[in-house]
Amino acid sequence: MKTKxxxxxxxxxxxxxxxxxxxxxxxxxxxxxxxxxxxxxxVQVSEGAKWAPVKNGDQIAVGATVRTGxxxxxxxxxxxxNVVKISPLSMIKxxxxxxxxxxxxxxxxxxxxxxxxxxxxxxxxxDSKFExxxxxxxxxxxxSDVFGIxxxxxxxxxxxxxxxxxxxxxxxxxxxxxxAVSVDVSGSMSDIIPIPLDIKQEANENxxxxxxEAAKDENNKEGNNGGKEEPKGGGVNxxxxxxxxxxNILNNVTTDQIIQDVEKSYKxxxxxxxxxxxxx
Length: 280
Prior knowledge:
The protein is of the alpha+beta class. Helices cover 29% and strands 36% of the residues.
């Protein structure tokens, strides 16, 4: 009986181990890079690590935190098309950025302090998500232009385009364009209200900027030829040259020799055909 219990326990541990390995294998990190860096912007790759300056093009890994100084800002860009602008005096942690085996995308940002504005492309699969978090709330973005603010006393989420679902204190509300909601330190949500005037203009301007950057990046991927692939091997001129050389070779082939080789192949049962080219 003891042997059977030990065997069952071993099998269970193997199943758990392989399940964990399968999960890791099914998730692949997404490429997130810093861009449009203005002023003093630093990154901390993990809790307790030293802060280091951020440059345009730097990779921002999962678990890293980006902070901006007074008058500073930067953008985080996903290779898949999402763009996030981090405002001055902010601290944002990238908690998740991965692609699943089914083609889904999972991203999560934690606003430790300050503000961010995000342009998030439409989610392609049911298991995709893009979340913006604060200590008291989680907002799920559904293909939108949104913003999130954490000033220490409360959190505010708003939408300029698309939809956002905000969860806090066991309650959920869905925000439509032009509206916002606040969450206090206890997790209690306010009523849904129009985006306050003191943030509305900033939100609209940043929505235009992040949307423009996303479109620009997409155009850069397509290239100046409108996304059409250039002919391989040098294009039309090289193709014409190959055709011309082929014609010259065929014109120099001795027809009688070809016929003899074909007859020989037929009699011997082989499939080799030797083409003899004679000089002019």
